[in-house]
Write a structure and sequence with these properties.
This protein is mainly α and about 325 residues long. The chain is built from 13 helices and 2 strands, in the order ββααααααααααααα. It is elongated, with a radius of gyration of 23 Å.
Amino acid sequence: MRALLLPLLFVVTTAGAQVPALTLEQLPRPTMPPGERGPVVPAQVERWRQEAKALEYGDGVKRDEVAAAKLYCRAARYGDAEAQYSLGWMLTNSRGIQRNDAEAAHLFAAAAEQGMEQAQNMLERMGGTPLGDPPPCLRPPETDPPVAVASPPAKGSKPVSLWATLPLPERAPPAIVSYVKLVAPEYQLSPALVLAVMATESNFDPLAESPKRAQGLMQLLPETGARFGVVRLRDPSQNIRGGMAYLRWLLAYFEGDVMLAVAAYNAGEKAVDRYLGVPPYAETRLYVRKIMAATGGQRLHPFDAKVTGASPMLMRVKAAMQNIQGH
C-alpha cells in the first residue's frame, strides 16, 4: 500500500553552490490525453493501467511520471478503480506532477464508490465527499455517444417506435415474459427494455441477491422498493412492478435517454448527475453496454413528463457530452 507522503521543498548544495528549491508550482500538469477512436475494451483499459504503473515506478522502462499520469487518466475515465486511486495518490503527493487535492478527492471518491477500501480511507483523511464538478479524468470518454435529444413529432403524425419490433431474450421464462407483456403498458414501458434490464440484473432468478442487498428479478434495494411502494421484495410480481416504476421514473427524469436511465438504474441517478453522464465505474459501464446491445442500441424511449421533472443537470450533461463529441 502506498504511504501518504508530505511534499518536501528543499535546498541542496553542489560544490558549495546553492540550488534553488523546487516548488510545487514548477511541477508539470499532465494534459488530457487525446480522445479515443473506436471502441475501448476492458483489456485495453487494464493495459493502460499496467503501462502507467511501469512508467510511474520505472519498472522495466525509464521512469516518466507525466506519461504515467496520462495513462492513469485514460483508464480512470473508463472506470478503472486502481487507476483512479493511483492518479489521486500522485496528485495528493506531487509525484512528478502538480499537487491538486480537489481533483484527487474526486478520484478517490470514484474508486471508493467501486468498493476500494484504500480509496475510502484516503477520502476520509481528506474530509469526505468532494465538492464541485468532477475533473476531466472522470468525465465520460469520447467514445460515449452524446445525450439523446427527442425531436417532437410532426402534427397529426403517430410516432413510429422500433421498441415493439425488438426480439425478447430467448432464455427468459415464458411466465415472466407473459407477465411483463401484460404489465409493461401500465408503466408505458417496452417489454424488451424491461426484460433486458431483468436479464442483466438477475438472469431471471427471483431469489437473486447482491452483496449490496439488492433483491429479486429486478434487483431492488430495500430503499428503492420502499420508494416505489414495494412491500415484499421477494414477491416476483411486486418486484417486477417496483422495477418498472423505477424505470419509468428514470426515463422521465432523463427525458427518455435509455443510456442514462439504465446507468442510473445501476448506479443511482445522483451518480449520473454528478459525473455528467455514465459514471466512471467499470461495473456500470459494462452494465450499460450489455443492455444497449440487447435493445439494438435504441437511445430514445417514450416517457411521461408528468411522472417527474427532468434532471436539473440534464442540460449540463447534454452540453458537456456534445462538447466532448465536438473535440
